[in-house]
Amino acid sequence: MRLKADPNLSEKERRSDRNDFGIAELRVEYRNNPIGIGVRAPRFSWQLFGAGRGIRQGGYQIQVSEDDPQYRSLIWDSGAVNSDQSVHVLYEGGSLKSRQVYHVRARAWDTKGRESGWQSAFFETGILDFGEWQAQWITCDLEMQHRAEALPIFRKTFEAGSPLRAARLYATALGLYEVEVNGQRLKDQLLTPGWTSYSKRLQTQTYDVTEYIQIGVNAIGLTIADGWYKGRIGGHPRDFYGDRRAALLELHLIYEDGSKQCVLTDGSWRAETGPIVMASLYDGETYDARLEKDGWSMPEYDDRGWLPVEIWERGMHMLLPQENVSTVIVKEMKPERIFQPPAGDPILDFGQNLTGWVSFTVEGQPGTTIELVHAEVLDSAGNLYVDNLRSAKQTTRYICRGTGNERYEPRFSFQGFRYAQVKGYPGEVNSERFTAHVVSSDLEETGTFECSDPLVNQLQSNIVWGQRGNFLDVPTDCPQRDERLGYTGDAQVFIRTAAHNMNVAVFFAKWLRDLKADQLPSGGVPNTIPDTLPGWEMHSAAGWGDAAVICPWTMYACYGDLRLLEEQYASMKAWVEFLRNSGEQEYLRNDGFQFGDWLALDAPAGSYTGATPKDLIATAFYAYSTDLLAKSARALGKKEDYAKYQELRTRIVENFNREFVTQTGRLVSPTQTAHVLALRFGLVEGATRKRVEQSLIRLIEQAGYKLTTGFLGTPYLCPTLSEIGRSDLAYRLALSRDDPSWLYSVAQGATTIWEHWDGRKTDGSFWSADMNSFNHYAFGAIGEWFYRFVAGIDTDEARPGFKHIHVRPFPGEGLHYARASYQSMYGEIVSQWKIDNGKMQIEVKIPPNTTATIVLPNVLQEKVSERGRRLGDAEGVRVVALHDNQVTLELESGSYQFQYDWRTPSSGN
């Protein structure tokens, strides 16, 4: 099945040295060896590696077997496929079964005829169809026992034989759950089953528990907490999704002789309450160690005094195998210092605003109560500041059992904090006894950015930490106060930055399915996903509801994920049609609830909304979403829709100009945001565009070279300035230390992104108490400008997912060095520039099986060299254009180094 090699190659060139060419990182649906997936036709991706430049795949072969790592019996063999596709290669074999292990291997050939070895992986399906579930929902009415807030624990014993081949446990809950098998807690996934609109979509998890099962009698234990399902969420006191916690579990044992055994949740289980007497996502957790039931999940435990469970006749139509990545502990940190504040008990300072919880060890008398109160910042006197938490308590309590050295770690609550005040601790509070556990969705970090300005490097760290703290199963706005909701506006403005920092393909695919599930029949989109405001008229705000279109398109651009685009297309189309049909004017949007340019600095006193007219913003985003929908239709081959929505966008733009642009080409709104949106979304052209560009520059100058934008204007401000040839202004804004600016908060000691530009003022006072998060990633969208403009790494919409790469760095005054890397689906991309002693050096790395276009700024062709060679003599380099002191080159894969004399340009470009 070998592909045909180039007949002009010599025999030496055809022989493959496995060190010179091969494949690696064979993944299934973005994951390494996933267990419990629900995709019925998975896609495979891999990366090529090899020495030299110009590595391109000429073909591939994939084989899949069912539970056969030797591949003796195949259920699919692609055969030799002449194609350079190495990302999202679709499985085209027979139907996959539930609860089955599949082995996959792939090999490839390059265009020089070199052949790789086989690269192997596996994947395992979960319970694919909800109708296959055999278990019953179990619950226990604790309110009858006057213990409504206490967490129920369930247990069951069973016997297992030998020899055992494999054991898989499938579980979910209405609430949060944890499983123990023979006294061992399954810790590889936290806060399961995650957050969805539970009546429509409820994820189920798969666990490999083979090593936990023993011959003879075994026991399973379950603990169920309120979580998002029954606990306090948004503005709801309790019981938003339901008023009863319940669990569903199946354990499947497979023996070497092929026989099977199944243990299910049913009426034979027993229930009690454990030591966790309260657990709330907002308020914390209370653990009374005196109520511990030693060995309660062990086989020998006597449960004769426990309550019988109740069987709950509830449907299973909403069950689906887990789509999201797991929530895990990604980092552990010790306090950087412990200090005594002017008022109150000792405070632990972990040196970093984070999301998670604190564990500790203690020796105390029975009944001794230790409290940890969590907060992000200190007040001007050096005391813990908790006013911005609003009604969230963020307090964990531990009541000692009095049996010597005891350890406590919360399990069903998380806090947003840098500081924790310790109350009631017996003895010395020292750093060895306390550990912060950083909790987040398990996202692979894919991007780095650094430069010659240490404050910018800290800003990049703040952006990453803000993403880490808020990407916890859903993209939340903040992790500390009584909100923590999946605001659509925050997600869409930050999504491109997020996709550079981390691999968010699976994370956003799950969230977008939640969005589609909660979308209104009219096509409107709730402002939070999952929807916490059903029935309210406050939905479908411009820049918020547009996440329905912006986010799928961004995932397509960054990952080349055509399947997700197709999957979300009906939702995208429904949103645009909602915009078309709402209000009195088909081509303008001037109705409905609007946030406007949220938290803009030009907001009138007492208002959260900036001065830019809401109908101007709404119409601008209407045009933008329609444009992206048209592009999506083209990508999906929907020719009629492409023409239809291109025409619709044309009409919207015409009406935008009639409504918001004067006859002399002036925007009616003299705000930075109005001008930025008009330019960035391509709503003005020709002489009008030139005037809007000049007006934007003048507005920035009149503001003292400061920004006045909010949530909707800020993400586009610096990119727009760079695109109109004024990177010098973009640099001036981005590198400013004054209030307001990104670096102002950094200079104030911030370790995450603030919700407000002036969340903490220079005199130590605070912006407000009611809406002042210090971990709110929206303004961190500046990260996109650092990656795409300062370092210059971008994808090509026509060849998305970085199959073709654009590298166009924009050096500017204030930096003499910048470097960004990005781990794409094809491999690592690097762009680095450095100005030293009048010399510009640009280094790039282009991964195998891709190509790139690079634009070298401020240079003449005859003055540039690549590793000491003239461009015409450099391997893998082709000169394609010369204009405006710029050289445009086409590059094959490989590493390159360009050098030339540098003259500071007159503008930012």
TrEMBL record:
Q: What is its EC number?
A: 3.2.1.40
Alpha-L-rhamnosidase C-terminal domain ranges (all copies): 792-866
Which key words tag this protein in UniProt? Answer: Hydrolase
Q: Name one Pfam family in it.
A: Bac_rhamnosid6H
Keyword Nuclease included in the entry's annotation: no
Q: Which is one GO molecular function term here?
A: hydrolase activity
This chain's protein is named: alpha-L-rhamnosidase
Q: Cite the SUPFAM superfamilies for this sequence.
A: Six-hairpin glycosidases
Q: Which reaction does it catalyse?
A: Hydrolysis of terminal non-reducing alpha-L-rhamnose residues in alpha-L-rhamnosides
Q: Which domain of life is it from?
A: Bacteria
Domain named Alpha-L-rhamnosidase concanavalin-like: residues: 344-439
Boundaries of every Bacterial alpha-L-rhamnosidase N-terminal domain copy: 164-326
Please tell me whether the keyword Hydrolase is annotated for this protein: yes
The record's annotation in PANTHER family points to: ALPHA-RHAMNOSIDASE (EUROFUNG), ALPHA-RHAMNOSIDASE (EUROFUNG)-RELATED
Q: Which residues form the Alpha-L-rhamnosidase six-hairpin glycosidase domain?
A: 444-790
